[in-house]
Design brief:
The complex is a heterodimer of chains A (334) and B (163). Chain A is α+β, with helices and mostly antiparallel strands. Helix content of chain A is 29%, strand content 25%. Chain A has two domains: 3-16 and 184-333, Aldehyde Oxidoreductase, domain 4 (2-Layer Sandwich); 23-166, Aldehyde Oxidoreductase, domain 4, CATH 3.30.365. Chain A has six helices and eleven strands. In chain A, strands 1-9-10-11 form a four-stranded mixed beta sheet. Chain A has a four-stranded mixed beta sheet with strand order 4-3-2-8. Chain A has a three-stranded antiparallel beta sheet with strand order 5-6-7. The longest helix of chain A has 28 residues, at 90-117. Chain B folds into two domains: 2-77, Roll (Ubiquitin-like (UB roll)); 86-162, [2Fe-2S]-binding domain (DNA polymerase, domain 1, Orthogonal Bundle). The longest helix of chain B has 23 residues, at 140-162. The radius of gyration of chain B is 16 Å and the shape is globular. The chains are: A alpha+beta (334), B alpha+beta (163).
């Protein structure tokens, strides 16, 4: 038995959003009497952190604390339209829609505050702690709660805003095939180290080293988490997960639950290190691109290349099972 | 039907156990403690983990009628007012959570580990949380947070000994 070490890398360019038939998302925002700003979305946060990121986008645009932002992901019967949470589009599409809505709401907020302060709205600014104040005269200020109370009960105005981001459908040029299928692309490179046991055929992923160019990491902790959580998913795709050999013809022998569907547990995870690079996209919310899906992609070819480097077996079908590695080794020895 | 009396997070509680119901459903639907999550409902994901007389159990597999007289600890009982437990604080500081669905079960498994083993190795942490499935983090931040929590607990115990 010999343990063979190998190293491989893979690079990925990954589109943010999609093109089929146009790709829109909408956001609505309105102020409550108590100085809160409610963002209504149909978009779904299925755990990736969308609500956190859109709250950040709204707070930054409004000039108000995060605590004043309430994200209501409503439902698709009643909320403003969203294409959905997929295609690595959430942060980009919905973030842009929220920024547009927040800008409109901010304009009304400043107009209401201007009326109360007997000033010109153009001369006002937000201080980020909940006050609207006169530029150059910070003692002339009004708290957002008083602004929204005045809007509701004195001035009779809604402090609200509408936002939409639409990536328009784009057709290829017939002569050249040229087209604009996505809004921007994020880039990544992953280096994988593996150890292959030439007797059992088991490939163990020892480490993943990731570099991701994400446009702008709106929330650096969540961006890093996405890279490494996705990296774990990539390892799982590469050497664990399979519905073979009987799916979908028969479920008699295939995995049917968490116990039988093989994915790596805490004892099987590789060491990971990650670097986030920022080259803001001109059309992204504060420059952000989408990195949702791509994080599970780069590890797979990197691991395949590392297995090739370790033992000379070139695999092109996932998962890279002990059986496929042993068959490859047999073929090399033949 | 049976009236079950027990202690939950240190307080006396009672509920009527309907036949076939589980401790998890009793906690969530009758006692209003929704911290323990119902993930797979077959004992495989660990998101419903609570402590039953100090031992971590998947509460979705514990018949409600069997816990009469038992002492149950759930995630809701860990914090002392606004002060989080060492494990909770370590999870927060180490960003050992993402969507949060597995977190209550992970934390209860970790609390049980540290109660019986204040200085676990990485392998022992891996084993202790091996019944808890996470699909977001890749486990590394969770394992690190449990080791961090163990260090915090030992440091706190050391301070107590000096006093």
């Amino acid at each position: 038995m010999t343990l063979l070490r190998g190293r491989g890398y893979a690079s990925v360019n990954y589109p943010t959003g999609m093109n089929l038939g146009g790709d829109p998302s909408q956001a609505l925002i309105h102020a409550t009497t108590m100085g809160g700003f409610v963002i209504s979305l149909s978009s779904v946060d299925l755990g990736q952190g969308l609500k956190t990121v859109v709250a950040q986008c709204a707070a930054e645009t409004l000039g108000m604390p995060m605590a004043n932002v309430i994200v209501d992901t409503a439902d698709t019967d009643t909320g403003p339209h969203c294409m959905g949470t997929f295609a690595s589009r959430g942060t980009h599409r919905i973030g842009n829609a929220v920024i547009m809505a927040a800008r409109e709401a901010r304009d009304v907020m400043l107009a209401v505050a201007a009326e109360e302060l007997e000033a010109d709205a153009d001369d006002l600014e937000t201080d980020g702690t909940g006050f609207v104040r006169l530029k150059g005269s910070p003692e002339t200020k009004i708290h957002i709660q008083d602004v929204t109370l005045a809007a509701h009960f004195k001035q009779g105005r809604t402090i609200s805003g509408r936002g939409i981001y639409l990536k328009e459908r784009n057709y290829p040029v017939p002569e050249t095939g040229e087209m604009d299928p996505d809004s921007c692309q994020a880039h990544a490179c992953t280096v994988a180290e593996v150890e292959v046991d030439d007797e059992t055929g088991v490939a163990t992923v020892l480490s993943l080293h990731n570099a991701y160019e994400v446009g702008r990491a709106l929330n650096p902790a969540m961006a890093a988490q996405q890279v490494e959580g996705g990296g774990w998913m990539g390892v799982s795709h590469a050497v664990f997960e399979s519905t073979e050999p009987y799916y979908p013809a028969s479920r008699d022998h295939g995995p049917v639950d968490f116990c039988e569907y093989l994915m790596p547990g805490p004892a099987e995870i590789p060491v990971q290190s990650s670097v986030i690079l920022e080259r803001p996209a001109s059309n992204g919310p504060f420059g952000a691109k989408g990195i949702g899906e791509m994080t599970a992609n780069a590890p797979i070819p990197a691991i395949a290349n590392a297995i090739f480097d370790a033992c000379g077996v070139r695999l092109t079908t996932m998962p890279f099972t002990p059986e496929s590695i042993l068959r490859g080794l047999d073929a090399l020895r033949a | 039907m049976k009236i079950v009396s027990l202690r939950v997070n240190g307080a006396g509680q009672a509920f009527i156990a309907r036949p076939g119901t589980t401790l998890l459903l009793a906690l969530r639907e009758q006692l209003g403690l929704t911290g323990a999550k119902r993930g797979c409902a077959q004992g495989a994901c660990g998101s419903c983990t609570v402590l039953l007389d100090g031992q971590p159990v998947v509460s979705c597999l514990v018949p409600a009628v069997t816990v009469d007289g038992a002492e149950i600890a759930t995630i809701e009982g860990l914090a002392d007012g606004q002060v989080l437990s060492d494990v909770q604080q370590a999870f927060l500081d180490g960003f050992a959570t993402q969507c949060g669905f597995c977190t209550p079960g992970m934390i209860m498994s970790a609390e049980a580990l540290l109660d019986r083993n204040p200085d676990p190795t990485r392998d022992e942490v891996n084993e202790a949380i091996s019944g808890n499935v996470c699909r977001c983090t890749g486990y590394e931040p969770i394992v690190s947070a449990v080791l961090d929590a163990a260090a915090r607990r030992r440091s706190r115990a050391g301070e107590g000994a000096k006093l």
